[in-house]
Amino acid sequence: MNLRGKLEMTAMSDVGLTRTHNEDSIGNDTDIGLAVLADGMGGYRAGEIASAIAINMVMERLRKAFERVCPGELDASTGYTRGTMMVQEAMNKANTVIFQSAQDQPQCHGMGTTVLTVFFYDDRMSVGHVGDSRLYRLRNDAFEQLTVDHSLVQELVDKGFYSPEEARRSAQRNLVTRALGIGPEVQTEVFEETVLPEDLFLLCSDGLTDLVEDSEIHLTLSKYSANLEQAAQQLIQLANQNGGTDNISVILVRVLTSFTQKMPANWYSRVVDWFG
Amino acid sequence: MTAKLVLSLNGAVLREFPLTQERITVGRKPDNDIHIDNLAVSGQHALIITILNDSFLEDLGSTNGTFVNGKLIKKHALQNGDVIAIGKHELKYVNQNATAADGDFEKTMIIRPGMANTTAAAIQKTTEKAEKAAAATPGHNGAGTPEEQLPLAKVQVLSGPAVGKELVVKKPLTTLGRPGVQVAVITRRPQGYFITPVEGQHPMINGEAIADKAHRLDDNDVIELAGVKMEFLMMP
Known about the structure:
The structure holds 2 protein chains of 2 kinds.
Chain A: E1 7-14, E2 24-29, E3 34-41, H1 46-68, H2 82-104, E4 112-121, E5 124-130, E6 134-139, E7 142-145, H3 152-158, H4 164-169, E8 175-176, E9 189-194, E10 200-204, H5 206-209, H6 214-223, H7 228-241, E11 248-255, H8 264-267
Antiparallel strand pairs in A: 1-11, 2-3, 3-4, 4-5, 5-9, 6-7, 6-10, 10-11
Chain B: E1 4-9, E2 12-18, E3 23-27, E4 34-35, E5 46-51, E6 54-59, E7 66-68, E8 71-73, E9 75-77, E10 83-86, E11 89-94, E12 109-110, H1 113-130, H2 146-149, E13 153-157, E14 166-169, E15 173-178, E16 182-189, E17 192-200, E18 204-205, E19 208-209, E20 215-216, E21 222-225, E22 228-234
Parallel strand pairs in B: 3-4
Antiparallel strand pairs in B: 1-2, 1-11, 3-5, 5-6, 6-9, 7-8, 7-10, 10-11, 13-14, 13-22, 15-16, 16-17, 17-20, 18-19, 18-21, 21-22
């Protein structure tokens, strides 16, 4: 099902004020309902290569799969939708390609990338992520982080050694525990969420969240909600005003209308039937 | 220069311990890395985890407690100069390596798989030891598959015509409610189970309406939705 007209997307990436290259990569497709963001790492310019491969592979695999498979269908054995399985497969495939390239080319050795993939279909979304790029949602003025970072400090926060404030200040805050390209296999974390009209989603690299507080991001999105491009520009500007010490990437997605695949009554076909 | 702990008693320095190991145990039993043979010290009193340039202190449920700069702590991120009091002894944490403030420390780096396993295992082990009856937050597990480790949960109907019915929550998304009236969704994440309102009035959890955000579900929470009361139960 073509989603044109149902979702509005804006994607922007900025090198920041101190880096010479932009190792972030972004991609989006409003027809199939896809947004992908990757933050590359590695010596020399290898980070750019890793993140570009990630975006290209994930988008290509999903576009191809989208032609054959209905993403809203349930995969009975796992309980996930086909859309979620597609996202996971695409990210695993990207991992293989990046890892192989890293092995084959000495100047790419050790390169890796975070990836955040959001795939919209049937009034829901499948999210796949590896690393510390984040997905946030703004719904009726409730601003919420939907992904949990795969990072060392996040683990320390989870175990009670750091408060979230201490984690923000930690020198080790940029150590990720998972990334694409550093091993033959990767643990992609996937989950599903329902999507409502007027939801506003933000995908971003840590170049934004390391420099701009959540409350500031919330305020900015609320203030510029009518104009996604302006909102994106403002977020990048805030990061640069606070130092711009890393590449900054943001993708904003606004849900304009319901995009259920089935007749409205049937969207809830999987609703438990005790309530009639 | 590596970070170290300086052990002293009544102001007299007894010994120095460089923090070269990931996990260093402190206690009265002789198998501890820092063995303090004093009755005020528990057999397994405390633990220090060192990850790269930072160290973290955790009390292991000791009888007399562990103090840092006079304050009783359970878990603490150590700062250069902190004085840890265990029984009557003192351990001073000395770490002169201020983390290099060069531009590169901002860069995102990957902890290599080998490192990730040991540090994650080090963090994991502390919770195994220190946890008691209190329900643990299903933590974010760096090593292994978080998904597989989250126990199943179920929802049991407490009122209405379907009273007694049970639904095992195993899918990543489970929608509940009456379309057109009130609908909510329970999502299953590595961090646990969450309920989010979707349509109509927000559901109540233990008598209070929830906000537009995902609300974490704990064992025995009572959900009220579309006039039906049900209990959320984690399965052992």
